[in-house]
Fold this protein.
Amino acid sequence: MSAHFEPRSSAMAHSVPVNRRSEEYAGLFEQAPVIFAALSGPRHLLEAANSAFFETVGGDRGRIGEPIAEVVPELAPQGVLDRLDEVYRTGVAYRARDGRLLLGGPGRQREGFFDFTYEPRRDSVGRMDGVVVIAVETTAYHHTHLLAAEQRVLLEQIARDAPLDEVLFGMATAIEALSPDLIVSVLLVDADGQHLRHGTAPRLPDFYNEAIDGTPIAEGVGSCGTAAYRRQPVIVTDIATDPLWQDYRELASRAGVAACWSTPIQDAGGRLLGTFAMYHRIPKVPADKDVALSAAFARIAALAIERHSAVEASRAAQERERAAREDLAFLLEASTAIARETHYSDSLQRMARLIVPALAPLCSVHVVERGQAQRIAVAASTRDGEELLSSRALRDEVDAAVARVLASGTTEAVHTDGRCAQLGVTGHVCVPLTTRGHAFGVLTLLTTDLPLDDRTIALAQELARRAASSADNARQFTNRVRLARDLQAGLLPPELPRIPGATLTSSYHPAGEGLDVGGDFYDVFPLPDDRWALMIGDVSGRGALAATTTATVRHTARAAARLLNDPAAVVAVINDALVASTADEDQFVSLVYGELRHTASHLALKLIRAGHVPPLVRRADGSVVEVAEPGLLLGIGPDPGFCPCGIELHPGDSLVLVTDGITEARSAGGEFFGEDRLADALAAVRTTTPAALIESVTAAVTAFAGNATVDDQAMLVVTAT
């Protein structure tokens, strides 16, 4: 279409006819890719303009010849007329780059950016007669530049692992700043893969965001639910009439949105991540630039979501690794602590104390004893918890669960209600304690707040598995110790007899944990004619053979002493019995055997020493002397040849018999306690009571060698009264 000019009066004519000049302008600029307008006179009358001018400002071609201020009134408040006046007055051209103008009337206003040139125009004699305006619109370039800048900022945020909500919010506000008529929303795929969750939508009302949070991914569920389902863009130009919005029209109307274009957000492999939506307040068809904008920011959103997912996955993996390390450390520490307990009940009580509060606030342990489940250990993190564990109602509930687990041999995890819930217990897990395929007990964890999760249950099961093995070992150890002590007790007199004119006291400390029957023994028993036999000895080795040998010595001595009125003859019989019974074994015995008779003034003794620690006499005045002749060990060969030794004990005198567990107790440096230190310990006692003598010796040995006992220690003290 040609530009034209219709003068209002002849005074506006110049030396060049207007029609001719308009035709020249039309020929030059009508098809040019620039905005052109020729303004004449001081009032800047629109003399000519090309199509690009009217397309840009939205004016009417019928207004040629009117002042530009009337054709495009929005230019005046933006300073355009002032620039035109200055060019017309001074004759100096004005140029501007990327100038911003708001064009269009109210409700139709849009922002544009332009490169301007205002050139003065003169007539043939050099007088100013108008201004020529040439402009190139740079809005698209400007927006592209800003868009690129915003994209760069967003990519930098993604690269530095900014929070996802921060990136999405920045993206939405950037788009809305570039295109104020747009409203941006991002929805994210829920972990279940079936719903969309709110990501960001700064300009949508809260009630709308809350309503669409959790939108199903399905056909016919608005623009976003459908786009996510189809995995392709969905353009709804009029929400009020589109069937996809049938269930959401009222909600959209309340939110003041009338069109919605949604694009699925997908990663490089096509996995759905969310949707990117652009809303409009009025029904609208998207332009090509809107489609391009949506695609560009959908890709950025995909990058942000992928990066966020990768960071979260890495963080979750690190957290799982940390939790696994902590769980392993807990199991190692706990199982080691449990294994250190050598006694059955102690190991299970330690397990209960370790579980609280690490795994649960309350814990109990039941074991089967004599066919019945008995609670042998409890632990609670608070005093209220202790009272709760002791309540009859809770115990009945736990006992019932324990019975079920013992019967099934499988773990029971329950979120409790009813009676337990009224007591404040919200859940429990019962784990069987199993060894060799048999459940001998149950570990129960109880919680009063959050349910016990799978990790806690798995830890409880693993700890129960380890603890069951340790507890079973401890039970066997306990049974073995009990058996050894019972056997040992059977080899020692249950109590010392009362002897006229004498006081007897003894002590016995088994070596180590007391697992094996020791070889140390002593005995006192009556003989005919008001006589008494006494002896102390030490059998080489430990265990069953030592116990058998000890029994042989004691029973042989008791039988022979009643028939033979001679200590040497009794010891000879004992030796014969040992030689006969240990012909194929390297077994020998050290022994002190004696016979005692009470007289009116003293105690008379005859002693035989066979390779044993020398007997000591501690006199009433505190002096200590060694008595009895040395002799050979028993059980090595026949006829050892013993020499009896006679001793008299007057009131206050004490005969002290010990085994080599005392004299051969070693210090940290390997030195023996010895007979001299034994004599010193006896001499240091200020009283003459047998108990004081034993206490002094025991204290001296402990101070010298410590509490570790590598050999049995036995003492027998006879004090004349």
Q: What stands out?
A: Residues 1-16 have pLDDT under 50 and may be disordered.
